[in-house]
Amino acid sequence: MSQNISTLKTEFLQYIEIEKGRSLNTVRNYDQYLSRFIDHTKIKDPKDITDLVVRDFRIWLNRQETKNEKGMAATTLKKRTQNYYLIALRAFLKYLARQNIVSLAPDRIELAKVPERSLDLITIEELERLLNIPDLKTLKGLRDKAMLELFFSTGLRVSELCALPRDINLKLEEMSVRGKGEKVRVVFISENAKNAVQRYLDKRDDMDDALFVQITAKKNDKLAKNKDSLRLTPRSVERIIKHYASMCGISKKVTPHVIRHSFATDLLRNGADLRSVQMLLGHANINTTQIYTHVTDTELRKIHKKFHRKSE
């Protein structure tokens, strides 16, 4: 096998796509992270990847600045983002070791410590306002109502929602979705979501096989034309939700992932166990799901107030 680092990177990306079944989005991200490492270090041969080279790259990463909307330097690259580069590099080194190619041992790379992850949440009242803001007299409003209700009912990631086919069987009140790592899980559709999706589908007059499609308001609320696919993109969905959040007076940043957080916290507040929530969210590791356990703090506070020192 070739020892050229760029060729090996290409072979590694093909490996994680085909053999490991990683999503195209993951492959693109790994390509970006590794390309940046190679470009910065000028490494040509994997044997030249050393502790010192990696350390120099980490220092460089730590001093990179992100840009705001005006193109001005805003903040340094977050530790969590820096770790994405290191995770990609470590996976690449593991691949090289598997191919018996001499390079740095993968376990020589330690991830940076990051602060405990905090959640962006909206209140139940804000969520209700968001769910009820779309104008149900228009096809666009019906689409957006269905989209919001389905988000909250299933906890889908935005990429999973955008990939949904039009021919879902609403009578089953459940469906299978393919998530991260091509893993399939079952999600459940509430009565509100089912009714909203059905009302939207009843008004569709196109033949596109995507569940959620682009609609051009300027053309009398008709579906967008002259495109190979009408399917909404994740970025479009993010813009739609941001628009509605602003319309109903929510000052916090609201994204599809915030609604996914609301789905998880709603389950936990109402007594669901962490393992079940993990399965519904499609988390590979329960440690990821544990970021939601803070929502039980309110209930614990009530218990403390009710029972603490009552024997005195």
What does this structure look like?
With 312 residues, the protein is mainly α. The chain has 2 domains: 5-108, DNA polymerase, domain 1, CATH 1.10.150; 124-300, Orthogonal Bundle (hpI Integrase, Chain A), CATH 1.10.443.10. 51% of the residues lie in helices and 7% in strands. It contains 13 helices and 6 strands. It has helices at residues 5-18, 24-41, 51-62, 79-98, 124-132, 139-154, 158-162, 191-203, 234-247, 256-269, 274-281, 286-289, 297-307; strands at 65-67, 73-76, 174-178, 184-188, 215-216, 222-223. The strands form 3 sheets. The protein has a two-stranded antiparallel ribbon with strand order 1-2. It has a two-stranded antiparallel sheet with strand order 3-4. The chain has a two-stranded antiparallel sheet with strand order 5-6. A hairpin with a 5-residue loop joins strand 5 (215-216) and strand 6. Helix 1 (5-18) runs antiparallel to helix 2 (24-41), helix 2 crosses helix 4 (79-98) and helix 6 (139-154) packs antiparallel against helix 8. The longest helix is centred in the N-terminal third of the chain and has 20 residues, at 79-98. The protein is globular, with a radius of gyration of 23 Å. The chain starts with a helix and ends in a 5-residue tail after the last helix. The relative contact order is 0.09.
